[in-house]
């Protein structure tokens, strides 16, 4: 029988577990939040758009190996216990993040830079693959049966709060150092700061006790001797693993990474929004939406987990394209030029010789601002031939600043997307814990979670950006990937998932 802990003790368990998990998510997501800047550091200056795609591929690599981390650390968690396993994952994550902050740029060590970062991203992915299952299992095995959705939902907030923390520290560091210094070396500070956060979390986790359910299992000599075999060779259990993956975590994963990571990438790279504006929009959206993880987690204790999660998927399928079309429309040059012009400050022309020719590229940067607070930087780039004069050029807009009403409209649209994240993600820890028996729970729940989130979800920014770069595609073409995956998961979940709540998890 699952004895409920006193309320103050259960919140100590949640606090200790959540802090470490939050820091691991922070470590994991700094990279994605700085993808554009890191791309300039890891690849040649003339790499262009391929630098971003290659950087997103390195970012995605950390997600791809998460299922392997789930197998390795899930097995350890079911053999030696929850506490020491996710203590180990915390050390691996923190060490890898710190080292990324120390790796020299492409200019210094060439292609060794992206290779070393890729290796460290793989270690991060393995560590995160072992973290989440341990933390969710640990809290669930302390929680009373009728409040499991509520208590595990606190762990669910840590992924979004980790992103919030990474964005906040990035913005603060950039504002203190200035854009040029931050782009040169200041981007390393958020990575290096990780070692302090990890040290605090390790100290707290060292004081934690083992899960009472696992301790009881161990004292009775019932610990699994081969968690992998019992999880995946057992036909009934493997069926639940597949159902959890295709009916729940796959759709949940793409909703999560579209609403937070692809949204940020789209605003910055497709809409060309100012660095700070894009981060502030996401920060406000996260701040307003985060309490709903707990609200939907608690609600799932009363009405069940299934329909809350599937409704979140359905709303994403319906509203993603209209939302992202609105982003495009409201950041168009026609919309930004509606107000009265205040200033247009033109910088001096810069001449850059074009390798292998007698031609040069002349670029002129103009900062434009309007009465309503909107603005942008316009770059005119022309090719100059000494024989033919101007032979072609292009006009590039970047660093767009939104007028206040549009800024808050975007905050609302991001809030709505993260609200969908809270619907699919808030109840899912309790849902997964209730599917599997104690002795193989860590292994069994970790694998579908990390395939759904790490592979299907984590690849959203990379695959969507890649699809949108194909000839004949539109800026919205990339959305068909998360919409398609969410639709498939919605259909499977509707047909095959049961509406679980308050399940006995002591077996």
From TrEMBL:
Q: Which InterPro entries does its entry note?
A: MFS_dom, MFS_sugar_transport-like, MFS_trans_sf, Sugar_transporter_CS
Domain of life, per the record?
Answer: Bacteria
Is Transmembrane helix set as a keyword in this record? yes
The record's section on Gene3D superfamilies has: MFS general substrate transporter like domains
User: What topology in the membrane does the UniProt record assign?
Assistant: Multi-pass membrane protein
Name its cellular compartments. Answer: Cell membrane
Concerning SUPFAM superfamilies, the annotation shows: MFS general substrate transporter (SSF103473)
Q: Tell me the ranges covered by the Major facilitator superfamily (MFS) profile domain, including all copies.
A: 13-501
Positions of transmembrane segments:
49-72, 84-103, 109-129, 150-173, 185-204, 240-259, 279-300, 307-324, 406-433, 454-473, 479-497
Record keywords, A-Z: Cell membrane, Membrane, Transmembrane, Transmembrane helix, Transport
One Pfam family in the UniProt entry: Sugar_tr
* Main localization category: membrane
Record PANTHER family: MAJOR FACILITATOR SUPERFAMILY TRANSPORTER (PTHR43045:SF7), SHIKIMATE TRANSPORTER (PTHR43045)
State what protein this is by name: MFS transporter
The source organism is: Pedobacter jamesrossensis
């Amino acid at each position: 029988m699952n004895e409920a802990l006193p309320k103050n003790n259960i919140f100590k368990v949640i606090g200790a577990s959540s802090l470490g998990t939050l820091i691991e998510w922070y470590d994991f997501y700094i990279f994605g939040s700085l993808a554009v800047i890191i791309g300039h550091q890891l690849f040649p200056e003339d790499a262009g758009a391929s630098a971003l795609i290659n950087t997103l591929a390195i970012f995605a690599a950390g997600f791809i190996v998460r299922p392997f981390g789930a197998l390795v650390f899930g097995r350890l968690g079911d053999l030696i216990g929850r506490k020491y396993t996710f203590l180990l994952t915390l050390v691996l994550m923190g060490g890898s993040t710190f080292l990324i902050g120390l790796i020299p740029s492409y200019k210094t060590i060439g292609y060794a830079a992206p290779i070393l970062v890729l290796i460290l991203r793989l270690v991060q992915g393995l560590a995160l693959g072992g973290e989440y299952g341990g933390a969710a299992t640990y809290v669930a095995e302390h929680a009373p049966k009728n409040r499991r959705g509520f208590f595990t939902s606190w762990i669910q907030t840590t992924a979004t709060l980790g992103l919030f923390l990474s964005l906040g520290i990035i913005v603060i560091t950039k504002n203190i150092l200035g854009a040029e210094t931050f782009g040169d070396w200041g981007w390393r500070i958020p990575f290096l700061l990780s070692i302090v956060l990890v040290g605090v979390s390790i100290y707290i986790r060292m004081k934690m006790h083992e899960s009472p359910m696992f301790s009881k299992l161990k004292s009775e000599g019932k610990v699994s001797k081969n968690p992998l075999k019992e999880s995946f060779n057992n036909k009934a259990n493997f069926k639940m693993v597949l159902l959890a993956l295709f009916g729940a975590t796959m759709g949940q994963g793409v909703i999560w990474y579209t609403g937070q990571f692809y949204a940020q990438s789209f605003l910055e790279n497709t809409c060309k929004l100012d660095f700070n504006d894009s981060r502030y929009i996401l920060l406000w959206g996260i701040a307003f939406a985060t309490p709903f993880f707990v609200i939907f987690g608690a609600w799932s204790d009363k009405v069940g987990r299934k329909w809350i999660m599937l409704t979140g998927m359905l709303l994403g399928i319906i509203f993603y394209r209209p939302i992202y079309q609105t982003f495009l429309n409201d950041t168009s040059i026609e919309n930004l030029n509606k107000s009265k012009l205040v200033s247009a400050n033109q910088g001096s022309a810069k001449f850059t010789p074009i390798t292998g020719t007698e031609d040069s590229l002349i670029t002129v940067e103009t900062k434009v601002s309007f009465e309503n607070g909107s603005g942008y930087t316009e770059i005119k780039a022309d090719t100059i031939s000494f024989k033919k004069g101007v032979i072609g050029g292009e006009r590039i807009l970047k660093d767009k600043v939104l007028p206040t009403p549009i800024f808050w409209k975007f905050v609302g649209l991001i809030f709505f997307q993260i609200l969908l994240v809270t619907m699919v993600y808030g109840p899912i820890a309790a849902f997964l814990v209730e599917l599997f028996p104690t002795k193989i729970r860590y292994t069994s729940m970790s694998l579908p979670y990390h395939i759904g989130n790490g592979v299907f979800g984590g690849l959203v920014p990379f695959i969507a950006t890649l699809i949108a770069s194909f000839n004949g595609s539109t800026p919205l073409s990339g959305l068909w990937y998360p919409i398609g995956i969410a639709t498939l998961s919605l259909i499977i979940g509707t047909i095959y998932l049961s509406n679980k709540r308050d399940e006995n998890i002591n077996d």
